[in-house]
Amino acid sequence: MGTIGDWLAGKGAARTSGTLRVGSMASGAPLNLPWLAVRGARPGRTLWLHGQVHGDEINGIVASLRFLRGLDADAMAGNVVVTPTGNPQALDARRKRNPYDELDLDQSYPGSAQGLPTERLAHAMFSEMRGVASMVVSLHTMNPLFDAPPYAVYKVHPDSPVSEADVLGAIAHFRPTLACRQDVGGKGELPGNIAGALDYQCLAAGISAFMVELGRGNAFQPENVALAENGFRGLAQHLGIVEGSPRATGVALRTVSRRGWITAEEGGMFVPRVRAGALVRSGESLGDVYGMDGSVTPVPPFTRDGILIGLRGDPVVHTGERLAFVAWEWADRLPIA
Ligand SMILES: [Zn+2]
Question: Is 258-329 assigned to CATH 3.20.190.10?
Answer without folding.
Answer: no
